[in-house]
Amino acid sequence: MKPVLLVRNDPWESFGLAPSSLAWAGADFRTVNMPAGQTLPPLEDVSAVVMFGGTVNVDMVERHPFLADVREYTRRALDAEVPFLGLCLGSQILARTLGKEVVKSPVKEIGFEAIRPTTDAKEDPLFSLYTDGDMVVQWHEDTYELPEGSVLLASSDAIDVQGYRVGDLTWALQFHQEVDGTEFAWWLDIASTEMDIEAVWGKSPDTLRAESAELMRGHEERGRELFRRFVDVVRERAW
Description:
- The protein is α/β, with parallel strands linked by helices.
- The protein has one domain: Class I glutamine amidotransferase (GATase) domain (Rossmann fold).
- It is 35% helix and 23% strand.
- Strands 2-1-3-4-9-8-7-5-6 form a nine-stranded mixed β-sheet, sandwiched between helices.
- Strand 3, helix 2 (66-79) and strand 4 (84-87) form a beta-alpha-beta unit.
């Protein structure tokens, strides 16, 4: 099986538990750092694409030219039926590629929030791992409508689209299922030096750390299982 490509879209991104989860599932991986000016490999050289998050809007192409590249790459992955998993900004890139506007959300989500899997999630190869009320890591202020032709797999009490599938090989999660405790703590430390998190996002760092202490273990377990299932899909397609 060719390696799974991990696409970095932000200097803060460390891939969380994704690399170790892929390795334990028996998959090799390679990474590309888009903000640093690296080049995306030919799709023929990878078995799947995982598109990670970031702090930019998908339409900030003039300020961040790499966004045009990852949007085009996402389109080509769809057309070539290369398995794809979009996380937060990655899900927004997919939605924008499919013709949906990515706009400011009426509610900013940060920290742990409950998701509500749909009926269709029960039979989904990835989302069937979730149950109603599972707490997942959020950190986003943009949102989008469900792309035409896709299947809604999860919502939350505040955001209509938290997860969806396109065809049989493409998934998108608005939440950060890749994040582990180390990365979340790192994000909080970095953000705290740049802003008043509570004033901007509505939760204090202390509240967010308390949520992590209580809920991160279950979140990490679901993250490892999500990537294991994704590798199963990729491996089945590869053969």
